[in-house]
Design brief:
0% strand, transmembrane helix, membrane, transmembrane
């Protein structure tokens, strides 16, 4: 479970590294905000988009 969490948090850390220096104090704050947006978008996709895609596949 810990490995899955680390893999999911690699993406926000890389994105935060594009905008903020990793030595800056606000780096982890920016990474956390990006991770929260990433999690919210994932949940929204699973709740709204994924069921609609399933409905289209069924004849």
């Amino acid at each position: 479970m810990q490995l899955i969490a680390r893999l999911l948090l690699i993406v926000p850390s890389i994105i935060a590294g594009w905008f903020v220096s990793p030595n800056d104090v606000s780096y982890w704050i920016v990474a956390m905000v990006i991770a929260l947006v990433f999690i919210v978008l994932t949940i929204a996709f699973e709740l709204y988009v994924h069921p609609r895609l399933r409905q289209r596949r069924k004849p």
